[in-house]
Amino acid sequence: MRSALALVASTAFVLRALGLNILITTDDGFGSASVRELYKVLNSHGHNTFIVAAPTGHSKVDFQTGFTTEPKLTVDGDWGLVKAGEPSLGHDPHDDHIWYYNGSTVAQVIVALDYILPQFHKVSRPDLIISGPNINRVSLKFPYTTVGIMGPAYAALQRGVPAIAFWTEHHPVIPYSWIQNRTNTDFVDPWTATARMAASLVESFIERAAGGPVLPQGVGVAVDLPASSDNCKNPSFVLIRGSQDVPVGNVQFDATMGLFTTGLPEPVYTNEDFDVGFVGIKVPRGETPECVARVVMFAVNFDAATDERCLNAPPVPLVQPPPVVPNVSATGNLTIPTATPTTPVSPPPATVTAMAAGMTIPSLLLLASLVLAL
Known about the structure:
The protein has 374 residues and is α/β, with parallel strands linked by helices. The protein has helices at residues 2-18, 33-44, 105-121, 150-158, 190-209, 308-311, 361-372; strands at 21-25, 48-53, 89-92, 95-101, 128-134, 163-167, 219-224, 236-239, 250-254, 259-263, 274-278, 281-284, 292-299. One of its GO terms (molecular function) is nucleotidase activity.
């Protein structure tokens, strides 16, 4: 009995030691079942998890950075969890790791990074930011990079924090208080099952990181989760391509009304072997198995250094060889080699895919190997 207790205690210690600081946000509201269930699952895995989201849903606000101009809420939050007249920033009275802020989804990330986490929890920077799981699989006729669930993920990467975005279209937005431990078919609540799906992928990345960054710098992951059901509890995670040429919608001006109307682009077919299952993502042509989670890699560009040593470095032409610069010395820790006019500089490739922009080949190969190994 003592040995069993010792094993449990040691396991709990290891979980705490390996636990990460993880921030979750969503555009479905801080009381939505989707993020509350993921919060519970990640906490049960030993992570120090936080939620920062709006008191009301902000679905489809896209990549906006909106901060409230009101110190107090002017309307009740969703499901009456917070009331008009309460502060625009606050936390759940029963859990100081669950916060709301009356701003856009991108603003949630910024407020969490710059104020909530360092000020109240002594967390200078989280190890991972998760956006979602959100309702509304990316089915809008716009590139998936413009939808609300992706804004926080891109903001996280731009602040140097690894990010994963999850979405699904198959379950309604409900408050966490409606979660059922078991459904009529003796299956866990769909949002509980969805949270477990998301957490399984998160844990795979954490395990393979072996104490290092969860993802390579500047690299994020977007995941389309399938509907959870009796027949789909542990989906396969399939790496697919992000489409680089899906058009953003167009607008037309109605002179009579004095307003713009939006035009929805037709689905884009960029390769005979792929069709657009939902705009912005290419999936294999033909019927796709239902219990499959589609994983897309994306990145922001960290190649453009802004530190003083690089700003002071002489420019390097892309095509024509530079003039001879004798005895160029090191600037800071960066050594700039002497140019050799007899060595031509290869021109850049004619096209650079959106997925490759800002990503080094090692980063691409590393992340692809992680997903394919799942």
